[in-house]
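Quick start: what a row looks like.
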Amino acid sequence: MDWQTVASGLFPQGHTIHEHDHLLSGTGTVDGETVAVIGTTGHAPIGIEIALAQATAVLATVRANPGRPILILVDTQGQRLRHRDEMLGINSYMAHLGKCIDFARRQGHKVIGLVYDQALSGGFITSGLMADACFALPDATIRVMGLPAMARITKVPEERLTELAKTDPVFAPGAENYLRMGGLQALWEGDFAPLLAAALASDDQVDRRRLLGFERGGRKLAHPVAEAVSTGSHVGAA
């Protein structure tokens, strides 16, 4: 789904979102509340310029509009794979973006992520996954690493990974699998505006991704291991 259609559904009361070099920025109004919108489109490769531009937009919102909710619209193919970006420290730029989003949250800004098209690797980790809660459209393409690349890195045959992906969401791409793992709060279908309004109205400030992954059967050990570490007990102990 293109960003214009998504924006119209999210903000039936109007918006000022515009696109420039794969960067989305502006504001929208939902349920009488103004929301800052920052994001990407066109399967944007996240290079140093767009990472810095997003971080700048987040800090500008914190500075000019204290407490204003922030919506991050995600459509990215991940970090840009260029020697120039690597030499200039793309990892630091992306870390800076993640820190700015965390800073905004700590300053009282509700941050919501929405994957409306594609979300891959570091471009997703330092944007949508840094939000208080991340949502996605059912047809969104989400993955950290494709199975062919995973096979090269892990030395596990691609055929074996393909077989594992049929039953284990950790190996499988797609919004439904990220929902099972707890990375997504929910999938949005139908009328987007009330869904966004409800997400913004939620005052739950606890990160429940590990617990959601455990309850949904997508990540069975992250939550019990974290609980065991925090309490000094053993996994599986009474």
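That is the whole record. The domain at 3-137+188-205 is CATH 3.90.226.10 (2-enoyl-CoA Hydratase; Chain A, domain 1). The chain has a mean pLDDT of 91.
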